[in-house]
Amino acid sequence: MKQTLKLLTLACLVLITACTSTQAKRDPAYAAVRPVATAQQQQSDGAIFNAGSNVSFFEDYRARRVGDILTVKLEEVTSAEKESETTVDKTNSNSITSPTILGSAIEFDTPGFLPLANNKSNDLSFSLGSTHSFSGTGDSDLSNKLSGDISVSVVELLPNGNMIIRGEKVMTINQGNEYLRISGMISPRDIDADNTISSKRIADAQISYVGDGPTNDANVMGWLGKFFISALMPF
Question: Based on the structure, what is the number of domains in the chain?
Answer without folding.
Answer: 1
